[in-house]
Structures are given as structure tokens and as C-alpha cells.
Amino acid sequence: MSAVPIPQMHYRSMRAADLPVVAKLEKELYAFPWSAGNFRDSLSAGYDCWTVCHGETVIGYAVLMIALDEAHLLNIAIAENWQNQGVGRAFLRHMVEVARNAACGIVYLEVRPSNVAARHLYRTMGFQQIAIRPSYYPTTLGREDALFLGLTL
Ligand SMILES: CC(C)(COP(=O)(O)OP(=O)(O)OC[C@H]1O[C@@H](n2cnc3c(N)ncnc32)[C@H](O)[C@@H]1OP(=O)(O)O)[C@@H](O)C(=O)NCCC(=O)NCCS
């Protein structure tokens, strides 16, 4: 298991009981959030859904879809009051390890060009741009492209 940057922090699989908290955080963190149903479907589909917790409190979550030897990180987020303390980087490292342990050769993800913090994190973790997905995300003014990134394991 990956090292944690903060005492009492640990990673564990997401449970159905976490869905209200996860959906609440998601609403706070994204202008166009996933619904609780999206997370429930991810759990039902058997995706690798994880939380990062401080004691009993869920402070972040991630959803990784693994198909054969490829992993796709569908979501990763850290509660606002826990951001900028190294939690996101450590949790992403953990999710990459989950993919590696499942014998994946690559981790894919999409990110908004406007998401400076996430882009910095992914770039410094070694993710490289593979393609641009035009008009992938909704915005208040229309659509925004997605950068499609990959990390070869
Ligand atoms: C992206 C996110 C997960 C990062 O989590 P975090 O816990 O704040 O990340 P860390 O503290 O580990 O910081 C990671 C790096 O990002 C940098 N960073 C954080 N905020 C930044 C900002 N606004 N601009 C530029 N860099 C930033 C940090 O300085 C750090 O880089 P460094 O190690 O080189 O100093 C978090 O910002 C988040 O949950 N955002 C909302 C949801 C989201 O956008 N998820 C990603 C969708 S693709």
C-alpha cells in the first residue's frame, strides 16, 4: 500500500454507505457533478471505487475502471479543506498501484484544459497527452475539450 502524507490517513474501498458523503463532496467540488446514482452504478459494475479517509471521515474518493490490461481513472477528488497537502498526489499514486497490481499496462484519464491543479498533478506524475477529445465536457457557456492522458506502467 502507498505511503500516506498525513497521520491517520488511509485508503479503503468505497461502500454503499459512503454514497451520501461522496455525492455531497462531488457536488461541492465540481460544477457538473456525478450523481449518487453514477457512483452506485460504478460500485455495482465492480469498478475499483476507493476512498481516502482521515480517521473515519471520507476526505476523497476515486473511481478506476479496469478492462483487461487497461485502466481508466474516471474520477478522483479531494475535499476542498484537504487540498494542497499532498493527499491528492498520494491517493493518485495509490490508484496507479491498484492498476499495476491488476496487471494493467496503462492508466488513462480525461482532464479539462482549465483544470490547472489536476493537470499539474498528472504531468508531474508522468501522465502524457495522447489526444484531445473535442467538446467532451459541458461548461456554463457550452462545451470544453478534454485532454486525454495516459501513464504507461
Ligand atoms: C486535483 C486534486 C485531486 C488535487 O488534490 P490535492 O490534494 O490538492 O493535490 P496535492 O496537494 O497532492 O497537490 C498536487 C500538486 O498540485 C499542485 N496544485 C494544487 N493546486 C494547484 C493550483 N490551483 N494550481 C497549480 N497547481 C496546484 C500542488 O502544488 C501540487 O504540486 P507540487 O507537489 O508540485 O507542489 C484536487 O484539486 C481536487 O479534488 N480538485 C477537484 C476535483 C478535480 O478537479 N479532480 C480531477 C478531475 S480530472
From TrEMBL:
Residues 9-153 form the N-acetyltransferase domain. GO terms for cellular component: cytoplasm; ribosome. The keyword Glycosyltransferase does not apply. GO terms for molecular function: protein-N-terminal-alanine acetyltransferase activity. The keyword Transferase applies. It catalyses: N-terminal L-alanyl-[ribosomal protein bS18] + acetyl-CoA = N-terminal N(alpha)-acetyl-L-alanyl-[ribosomal protein bS18] + CoA + H(+). Acetyl-CoA binds at I76, A77, I78, N115. Keywords: Acyltransferase, Cytoplasm, Ribonucleoprotein, Ribosomal protein, Transferase. Gene3D superfamilies: 3.40.630.30. Its EC number is 2.3.1.266. It is found in: Cytoplasm. The active site is at E110, Y122. NCBIfam families: rimI. Acetylates the N-terminal alanine of ribosomal protein bS18. Belongs to the acetyltransferase family. RimI subfamily. This is [Ribosomal protein bS18]-alanine N-acetyltransferase. The lineage of its organism: Bacteria, Pseudomonadati, Pseudomonadota, Betaproteobacteria, Nitrosomonadales.
